[in-house]
């Protein structure tokens, strides 16, 4: 029986259609008892049979946030678990654990309950007896992010309106919720077993390993590992983020439109 409180929403686009078949193989393998309706939002409905109960095909010409808004308007459940098409399951999902966190999102009236502590949170929200949830401070870098998590659908819909890319959703959205009363919660450990297999259009090495470990054939002429220049730039960025507070960096990026993500 499909859960009436939450829907899985997987965000994609035509440029990333090659990632969907491996996503589906891993989904069926590692979450066969998923109790939620699973919805794909993309531009053009894919030809192959996948793991989704429903596809919202928005057509070409829109952007990531346009498609997100359109999909959310077709969903009636009060909560949504939002994922990206390159969030590949790497081990079995604990369905009972996800349902427990969904119950906590409802009990706390959370705007978002992130299922991975990335970035590491600051303020404690509840006692360890309640599952040890933490809370992100609002108007701080990446308090809003596309990391796997449970969202209040109405909050997510309002946040996505008027924005375009994932970059705007995360970077601008993090500093636009000062009046929001509902908490932004996060689990103390990673509780949704996924890897972010592709970064800026290129495979991560652990993404390639995930395909090999699960005997998934893939044509790497479609996309490969990042070239040397990209690896150097990403290494320098990681060094900067390691020594400079995230809030300073993101505020500068927001002010000058720097560091936009590749996907639109």
Brief write-up:
This protein is of the alpha/beta class and 264 residues long. It is built from eight helices and 13 strands.
Q: What does this protein look like?
A:
It is globular, with a radius of gyration of 18 Å. The chain has a single domain, classed as Spore Coat Polysaccharide Biosynthesis Protein SpsA, Chain A. It contains eight helices and 13 strands. The mean pLDDT is about 90. With about 260 residues, the protein is of the alpha/beta class. A nine-stranded mixed beta sheet has the order 3-2-1-4-9-6-10-8-7, sandwiched between helices. The chain is about 30% helix and about 20% strand. Helix 2 (about 65-70) packs antiparallel against helix 4 (about 155-160). Helix 1 links the parallel strand 1 and strand 2.
Task: Please give the count of helices.
Answer: 8
Residue share in helix: 25-40%
Overall CATH class: Alpha Beta
N-to-C CA distance: 35 Å
Tertiary shape: globular
The major β-sheet equals: 9 strands, mixed
- Please state how the strands of the largest beta sheet are arranged side by side: 3-2-1-4-9-6-10-8-7
Number of strands: 13
Mean pLDDT equals 89
Q: What is the correct CATH architecture?
A: Alpha-Beta Complex
Structural class: alpha/beta
Q: What sequence of helices (H) and strands (E) makes up the elements?
A: EHEEHEEHEEEEHHEEEEHHH
Measured by DSSP, the beta-strand proportion falls in 15-25%
The stretches of 5 or more residues where confidence is low (pLDDT under 50) are: none
CATH topological fold name:
Spore Coat Polysaccharide Biosynthesis Protein SpsA, Chain A
Radius of gyration from the CA trace? 18 Å
Number of domains: 1
């Amino acid at each position: 029986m499909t859960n009436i409180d939450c829907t899985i929403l997987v965000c994609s686009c035509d440029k990333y259609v090659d990632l969907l078949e491996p996503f589906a193989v891993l989904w069926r393998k590692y979450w066969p008892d998923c109790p939620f309706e699973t919805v794909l939002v993309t531009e053009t409905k894919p030809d192959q049979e996948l793991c989704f109960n429903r596809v919202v095909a928005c057509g070409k010409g829109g952007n990531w946030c346009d498609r997100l808004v359109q999909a959310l308007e077709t969903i009636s459940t009060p909560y949504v678990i939002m994922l990206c098409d390159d969030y590949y399951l790497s081990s079995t999902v604990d369905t009972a654990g996800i349902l427990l966190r969904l119950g906590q999102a409802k009990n706390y009236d959370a705007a978002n309950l992130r299922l991975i502590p990335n970035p590491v949170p600051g303020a404690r929200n509840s006692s360890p007896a309640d599952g040890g949830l933490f809370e992100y401070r609002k108007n701080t870098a990446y308090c809003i992010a596309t990391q796997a998590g449970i969202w209040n659908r109405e909050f997510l819909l309002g946040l996505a309106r008027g924005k375009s890319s994932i970059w705007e959703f995360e970077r601008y959205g993090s500093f636009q919720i000062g009046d929001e009363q509902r908490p932004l919660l996060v689990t103390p450990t990673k509780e949704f077993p996924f890897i972010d297999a592709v970064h800026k259009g290129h495979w991560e090495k652990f993404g390639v390993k995930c395909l090999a470990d699960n005997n998934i054939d893939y044509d790497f002429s479609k996309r490969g590992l990042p070239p040397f220049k990209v690896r150097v730039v990403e290494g320098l960025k990681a060094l900067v983020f390691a020594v400079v507070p995230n809030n300073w960096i993101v505020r500068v990026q927001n002010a000058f439109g720097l560091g936009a993500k590749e996907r639109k």
